[in-house]
Amino acid sequence: MELLADITDSTVKQEDKELYHEFLVKYTNIFTKNIYATKDYTYKKLENLINNPDIVILEGDKETAIVIMNKVDYVSKMNKMINEGMENGTYVESGDTTFGDLDHFRDFLYRNFKDHPKYKKMLPTSHRPARMYGTAKTHKFENYEDITVENLKLRPIMDQSGTMVYNASQIIAEYIRPLNDSKYIIKDTLKFPSILSENKLKNDEEDISYDVESLFTNVPIDDTIEYILDEIYIKKRLKPICKRLIMKRFLKRLTSDCLFSINERLIKQKDGCAMGSPLSVDISGIFMTKLEKEVVYPEKPILYKRYVDDVFYRKKKNTEDTLLPKLNAYHHKIRFTVEKDLKKFLDTKLRLEEGSYKTSVNRNRKKPMHWSSKVPKKIKRNIITNDLHRAKKISSDFREEIKEIGQKYESAGYPKKYVDSIVKDFKERKEKETAKKEDKVFVPIKIPYCEKNEKIAKHFLKKMKVFTDTKYAFTIVWQTRKIKTLFKLKDAIKHKSNVIYKGTIENKPNVAYIGETALIARARWNQHENPKHDSAPSKYLHENANEKFSWTILCVSSTNVLKRKIHEALYITKNNPIINKQVKHKKLILFKNGVT
């Protein structure tokens, strides 16, 4: 709450400031006490599942479902995907190349991009192998009862956060994004019904859909990179940021040779885009743009629209589909499948009546979050509001959609009055949105969620408005615990970064050094062990050539450098290591505004 006081202090009357600070301290204590007093029944009920080594819990792909699966079946399915990828050249088995890769990549960035305005943002703050895990494609089923171990497919997801290429990938994705500009792209799935209404289906026409199988992992990287380079250096679509050969190596490094771990195996991805990479959406989109320029545009289709890997295509009735074989002949790794007699596309259910489409929401029969779920009412309200918004945009009969939405949530235990009040608010929202609003500073307040905190939150906000003379727009951001965080699918992080560490001279336990780093601890220790490096341990070894450090991680700290420095200072104050006495550290101030 100290940050909240800093933001709002200037609007509080001088005579009320002491009372205001007492009010913040009081509610901080109340919110904290309520959390500790609340028994986590969800965790208790799931404890047996969490501690069972023979099962895994998967989250649903593209929906909020969870799937309980025997671990042996999960491992078998993931290994099968990896082995198939090895057979077609997508993956290769690898050793641990973490440290060599990191040194080479940092050197590459320095030599070629040190003058780039975002050079510092490109630099890796840490490096560890990416971690692959699987999500369950439950959205492919109308009913959960139809799911079996045999017919359930998994989607491989790559967690690349913390890898050496993650930061640079974000910068380069932003740079090449303008090249993903196909005129056939559907940017918003909710706008598809309006595309249909603008393009009436004629009597001699029919609509079909294509789907690109595993687009991200099958994108031909080398072909796509050459296309990107031509667009930058020949067609001058973008301002070059380096020489062509350097950009080619850079893109290759960011997209290929991705080292990841899965089920304690180390694998390198040599082709295709990894699901979870910041570049995957843009690279796959640019490839599809290239394909459509070379194959689709010359065909001059009546109507062709695409959302990522889903294609809507209109052709003449009773004529051969000449586009599909050309699409499938474009590259041996890319395969399009076709669906005729179209009943749905994306979020839209289609019903053809007298030559025109009646649209409704493509909704499965799965139940939503139950009313008894231990989550804030604000989240439950937002879920219903989002359903109404989607129905309003998609459906040609909004009244019928309201009935279905009502039945859907009432069957999950939601009180009818509660659902009706949200529907009423949604209908009247336009008037509220058009009403004149005063400019206010938006201030989110993070509070850990429990039912007791939710009940007193309204009074807390009311008092906040009184103290600050309603000059801020306060909103509470509830901090909740997601079920999926209790179940670990990813491999444990082998090389830890953002740590506080300690080095002790062997046979001299009183000679020690404590430090912090955003790098992998081992990489930082390697720097310290180089007598030519400019650090206190390096200088000590330079002066005492026969001595050697023994290193250990004291704790994992924050990714925020200031918080890490404070954490480091606390350890230094507690342990008083000799070598640190030579180093000037930040002065630790616990209460910068004093104590009231």
List the helices and strands and how they pair.
Blueprint: H1 2-8, H2 17-37, H3 41-50, E1 55-59, E2 66-70, H4 71-87, E3 91-93, H5 98-113, H6 119-122, E4 130-136, E5 154-159, H7 166-176, H8 192-198, E6 205-212, H9 215-218, H10 221-233, H11 244-255, E7 258-262, E8 265-269, H12 280-299, E9 303-307, E10 310-316, H13 323-328, E11 336-339, E12 344-345, E13 348-353, E14 356-361, H14 377-394, H15 398-410, H16 416-434, E15 441-448, H17 451-467, E16 472-479, E17 497-505, E18 508-520, H18 521-528, H19 536-543, E19 549-556, H20 561-575
Parallel strand pairs: 4-7, 15-16
Antiparallel strand pairs: 1-2, 3-8, 4-5, 6-10, 6-11, 7-8, 9-10, 12-13, 13-14, 17-18, 17-19
Helix pairs in contact: 2-17, 10-11, 10-12, 14-15, 14-16, 15-16
Distance between the termini: 14 Å
Total strands: the figure is 19
**What gyration radius follows from the Cα positions, in whole Å?**
29 Å
Could you list the spans in which at least 5 consecutive residues all have pLDDT below 50?
A: none
Portion in strands: 15-25%
Can you count the helices?
A: 20
Give a verbal description of the structure:
- There is one protein chain.
- The protein has 596 residues and is an alpha+beta fold.
- Among the domains are: 2-40 and 370-480, no CATH class; 497-582, GIY-YIG endonuclease (3-Layer(aba) Sandwich), CATH 3.40.1440.
- Helix content is 41%, strand content 20%.
- The chain is built from 20 helices and 19 strands.
- Strands 3-8-7-4-5 form a five-stranded mixed sheet.
- Strand 1 and strand 2 (66-70) form a beta hairpin.
- Helix 10 packs across helix 12, helix 14 packs across helix 16 (416-434) and helix 15 (398-410) packs across helix 16 (416-434).
- The two termini are 14 Å apart.
- The model has no long low-confidence stretch (mean pLDDT 85).
